[in-house]
Design brief:
The chain is an all-alpha fold. It contains 14 helices and no strands. The chain has a single domain, classed as MetI-like fold (Orthogonal Bundle). The longest helix has 33 residues. The chain is globular and about 70 Å long.
Length: 260
């Protein structure tokens, strides 16, 4: 036993077991249920429902629309915030960045329930507007911090050189700062867009289930014990997430502030 724990490779074993049990095995089960019927026979009908079922198609399109709108809102609000946080002249206190982390210490479901209760108290009817507000409130930090990290690591000499050559502040921003911060923006988009598409609790609470997103449809399938079709829709989401992760910016490129 002593010789086993003296080997560095042995310390990988617990992580390997964890990965197999809680990552690989669930993915295999999703794939199995997605490609089989209730009798365990191979079929593609579950996957075909994604392209033929009007309810599923509509919920997916609504989810894409809401996710796009939420992502745009988070960019419009998050980029200026990240810019201010990364600018030593505009932000002279490290406490400011902490203020944007504090809400994330509270459970997301509790934040959503509290937000819905505020709307109910104010007499505001729950709908798409309240949904987008809650989505932006929940996912805004995931847009701010990737952009902030890139801006904070960015070599300031590029902006200074542009200023020395006579570029205006707006030109420096559009020609230097914004292009170099694109990896952070793309990372933020991925961290906001895909979770918005697949969420279900937030939409159910903030719209009284009047707007059903794709995640709600998947949850409904499992709730009604339609495991195969629910797994198939989950499998579709995994494929979409895999594609977006494949086209996401390289980590080394992001660490260098967008320089290739």
């Amino acid at each position: 036993m002593t010789n086993i724990f003296n080997k560095r490779s042995s310390w990988v074993l617990p992580y390997f077991i964890f990965m197999v049990l809680f990552v690989v095995l669930p993915l295999v089960l999703i794939g199995f249920y997605a490609l089989t019927d209730s009798n365990g026979h191979f079929t593609l009908s579950n996957l075909a429902a994604f392209f033929t079922d009007a309810k599923i198609i509509n919920s997916f399109l609504v989810s894409m629309e809401v996710a796009l709108e939420n992502t745009i809102i988070c960019i419009l609000i998050g980029y200026p915030v990240a810019y201010i946080l990364a600018d030593k002249d505009l932000n002279k206190s490290a406490v400011t960045a902490l203020l944007f982390i504090l809400p994330m210490w509270i459970n997301a479901l509790m934040r959503t329930l509290a937000t819905a209760e505020i709307f109910n108290t104010l007499g505001i009817q729950l709908g798409k507007g309240t949904l987008l507000f809650g989505m932006a409130y929940d996912y805004l930090p995931f847009m701010i911090y990737p952009i902030y990290n890139v801006l904070n690591k960015m070599d300031k000499s590029y902006a200074e050189a542009a200023q020395d050559l006579g570029a205006s502040p707006m030109t420096v921003f559009t020609k230097v700062t914004l292009p170099l911060s694109m990896p952070g923006i793309l990372s933020g988009v991925l961290m906001v867009f895909m979770p918005t598409v697949s969420t279900f609790a937030v939409s159910e609470i903030l719209t009284n289930n009047t707007i059903q997103l794709f995640g709600s449809v998947i949850q409904e399938q499992f709730y009604n014990l339609m495991w195969n079709q629910g797994a198939a829709l989950s499998f579709v989401m995994l494929i979409i997430i895999g594609i977006t992760m494949y086209i996401s910016p390289d980590k080394d490129e992001e660490a260098e502030g967008g320089l290739i």
